[in-house]
Write a structure and sequence with these properties.
This protein has a five-stranded parallel beta sheet, with helices on both faces. A five-stranded mixed beta sheet has the order 6-7-10-8-9, sandwiched between helices. Helix 2 (59-71) packs across helix 3 (90-99). The chain contains seven helices and ten strands. It is globular, with a radius of gyration of 21 Å. With 257 residues, it is α/β, with parallel strands linked by helices. It has two domains: 2-107, Tetrapyrrole methylase, N-terminal domain (Cobalt-precorrin-4 Transmethylase, domain 1); 112-228, Methyltransferase, Cobalt-precorrin-4 Transmethylase, Domain 2, CATH 3.30.950.10. Strand 6, helix 5 and strand 7 form a beta-alpha-beta unit. Bound molecules: S-adenosyl-L-homocysteine. The site of S-adenosyl-L-homocysteine has 23 residues, from helix 4 and strand 10. S-adenosyl-L-homocysteine (SAH) binds next to helix 4 and strand 10.
């Protein structure tokens, strides 16, 4: 018996992996994060399966569902939003399962920061402009360690993807303005990949107003980066015909000399 922690993807039921979908289809117990994972994602569960939303459960209750399934020798599909490596409570849950000697495995998923980039049609790394992505959040009820404060992260000028922060947009913008000019590009994607998806583009000067006017309060990704505006970047070396790599010889070496 195993508890499979499955990344459900960002919302679109087609954005779960094939592996995750097959497990949802065959596990007799399906426990999904009803607050963020649409019911359609788990609609592929077997009609005899016990399908439960963990929306109103605390950690003890979630562990109790796993323990009960374990005692019945039934596999569990624990389906959570996006990917399990980011703000998922995987660590605290698996620590409890280890104490109970219950086996578990993780199946990765498409994270909402990736779905948000896709919605924007945006590569988050541009050759020579930006080669780093920082995934973080504003400090709120869950404090962020001081060394990771937004101001210090912003100083890298890497692409910043902020989870769980939209309700703190005023504070986020205030802190970013301490490092960036008012015209620094920022975008908000609400419910990426859901039918209700909305995209707001702006700058530090106007994004707060736009987000508040749109009434966006939850399930949104904030992306802060010069890549959102940059059109003047060099082609990458990957497809450059003067550049050799493991899979391709340079064709036009002289042009490179
Ligand atoms: N593990 C998840 C993140 C869970 S934390 C992942 O990999 O995506 C929940 C936060 O994720 C939300 O506050 C929001 O910032 C973001 N989020 C989740 N689904 C989203 C979606 N469809 N569109 C935009 N942001 C989303």
């Amino acid at each position: 018996m195993t508890v499979y922690f499955i990344g459900a993807g960002p919302g679109d039921p087609d954005l779960i992996t094939v592996k995750g979908a097959k497990l949802v289809e065959r596990c007799p117990v399906v426990l999904y994060t009803g607050s963020l994972v649409p019911a359609e994602v788990v609609a592929r569960a077997n009609e005899d399966a016990l399908v439960l939303s963990s929306e109103a459960m605390d950690l003890d209750e979630i562990v109790a569902v796993c323990k009960q399934a374990h005692d019945n020798n039934q596999d569990v599909a624990r389906v959570q939003t996006g990917d399990l490596s980011i703000y998922s409570s995987l660590a605290e849950t698996t620590r409890r399962l280890d104490d109970l000697d219950i086996d578990w495995q993780v199946v990765p998923g498409v994270s909402s920061f990736q779905a948000s980039a896709a919605a924007l049609g945006q590569e988050l790394t541009l050759p020579e402009v930006c080669q780093t992505i920082i995934l973080s959040r504003a400090s709120g009820r869950t404090p962020v360690p001081d060394k990771e404060n937004l101001k210090s992260l912003a100083k890298h000028e890497a692409t910043l993807c902020l989870f769980l922060s939209i309700s703190l947009i005023r504070k986020v913008v205030r802190e970013l303005k301490e490092v960036y000019s008012d015209d620094w590009p920022i975008a908000v994607v609400e419910k990426a990949s859901h039918p209700e998806q909305r995209i707001i583009r702006g700058t530090l000067a106007d994004i707060t107003e736009k987000v508040e006017a749109a009434g966006i309060k939850a399930t949104a990704m904030i992306i802060v980066s010069k890549v959102l505006q940059e059109k003047d970047f060099n082609d990458s070396k990957l497809y450059d015909n003067t550049f050799s790599h493991g899979f391709r010889r340079a064709r036009n070496v002289e042009a490179n000399s």
